[in-house]
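Notes from hallway chat w/ T.B., transcribed later so I don't forget. T.B. wanted the structure written out for a chain they're using in a teaching module, and asked if we could keep both sequence and C-alpha cells in one place. Agreed to drop them here.
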Amino acid sequence: MLTCKTFGNVYADVILREEYSSSSVLLSLVGSESTVRGASAAFLENHTLYFGEDARFGVRRSHRFDTYRLKTRRLSQNIIHSLIYPLDFSSHIVVGRNESEIKERLTRKVMEEIPFLPEWADWLWKWSIDTHSFEPLETLTGGIIGGWVRIDYEELKSAISDNIENLREQIP
C-alpha cells in the first residue's frame, strides 16, 4: 500500500495509471472516513493526489473519461474503502491479478463480440500485443494489473481467417 501524502490517514491498495503519466484509470483508497472521502472528492474534481514516501507518484483522473464512478463501503466503524473508476471502464480496460487472468478476461471480451474459442487465448494475447490492441497500464501498488483494450474486430476477424489452420491445431 502507498500512503497518500496529500491527505493524512489514506492509503492506496490499487493504482492503475497510464505509463509515464499521472493519469489514473483505477484508484482504490482505504482509511478513515473523512480523509478517504476528501481524497476521493479531490480526485473526482481532477486534483492531483501524491503517494509514496517522498510523494513521488502524482495521480489524477485520466482525460480519456468524462465520468467516473465511486463505490464506497464501510470496513469497520472508522475505516472505509473507496473504489474510483471510469463509468465505461469495462468496455475499455481489462484488469486481473496476473497475466493469465488478463488473457482469460480479454478472451471473454472478444467472445462477447465475435465467434472465438477459449483455446485461442494465447494466440489472441500475442496478436493483441503485436497490434497494440492491448496496451499495459502501469501499476503502482502491485496486486492488480491491467491494460487498455482497443480491438478492431474487422482486423481481428481477418487475422483469424489468415491463421485459421494454426488455430485449428490448438483445438483438442
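Follow-up for T.B.: The mean pLDDT is 91. Might be a good example for the class.
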